[in-house]
Amino acid sequence: MQIFWINIDKLNYRDFLEKISPPPNPLPSKEGEKGDQNIVFTPNPEILLQTKSDSEFKKLLEKADYLTPDGIWLYIAFQILDNRYWKLINTLLLPYYFFNLFFKRKSLYRKYGDRICWSDITKDVLARAIENNTRITIIDLYNPTDLKKVESQKIFSGKLKEKFPKLHFDYFIYEEKEKNKILEQIKKSDSKIIFSTLGMKKQEESVIEIMDSCKNIKLWLGIGSSFDYFIGFQKRAPKIWRQLWLEWLYRLITGPRKITRLKRLYSAIFVFTYEVIREK
């Protein structure tokens, strides 16, 4: 299904996880070939809206092997786009689409594929990496003005090792002046998976850039702030909230910067839905 001319993959989550998980000792690819490398990005409404005004970002997303639906509002868009009704009719049908979202979720998954968000991918790929003794690399955003981020980065490796004692990993603060040095270290390592946590667009840019240099990496993931949940820097919504597709509401209630979150929610819900109907 395409949203704003970007193809979102219809996937079964378990099958998808099997496809992207590197084996313990993947076959080497020939010089200059992509081989069995896989790039996974998880577009949400905010990301898709950004591509409407940023053609460069759109091209970055299109280089991925998999674009998985991250965000429940994409399933509103799928329902709008998967019919021949006029714009006015689709607007009037929005309550019905919302009803399906919360009470006919399995049916939506069968029709449009499973929702696959960055937090779930991160958790399950980490589990596979530990099971297969696979080394991973994590690249994090260099932002000296964010003092809270700087402090968390100082203890990140220790916290991650404490949480996952059997995980083998390299951790880099990805800044422009150190980029070539970091690329060389990744290239010489035995790492097979890269997690980029640089945030919207920057993480996609970094993944594409590193892919061209590091043929040893077999799986590339842009995953936002997933690790913050696993090592306690942020608290993820309880399972019941996630099952009810209300994780966004939990973040709004419990998280800081509520005005900023409200603006982002308004954009992800109302602006996104309006643009989908308008472009239909």
What report would you give on this structure?
By secondary structure, this protein is α/β, with parallel strands linked by helices. Helices cover 54% and strands 11% of the residues. It is built from 15 helices and 8 strands. It has a 6-stranded parallel β-sheet, with helices on both faces. Strands 1-2 form a two-stranded antiparallel ribbon. Strand 1 and strand 2 form a beta hairpin. 29% of the residues are buried.
Describe how the helices and strands are arranged.
Elements: E1 2-3, E2 6-7, H1 13-20, E3 38-41, H2 45-53, H3 55-62, E4 66-67, H4 73-81, H5 87-92, H6 94-103, H7 105-112, H8 118-131, E5 136-141, H9 147-163, E6 169-174, H10 179-188, E7 193-196, H11 202-213, E8 219-222, H12 226-230, H13 239-243, H14 247-254, H15 258-279
From the structure above, extract its key features.
54% helix, 280 residues, alpha/beta, six-stranded parallel sheet, two-stranded antiparallel ribbon
DSSP summary, beta strand count: 8
Derived structural class: alpha/beta
| Pattern of helices and strands | EEHEHHEHHHHHEHEHEHEHHHH
Strand order of the largest sheet: 4-3-8-7-5-6
Mean pLDDT: 85
Continuous helix count: 15
Radius of gyration: 19 Å
Number of domains: 2
Q: Summarize the biggest pleated sheet.
A: 6 strands, parallel
Give the terminus-to-terminus CA distance.
13 Å
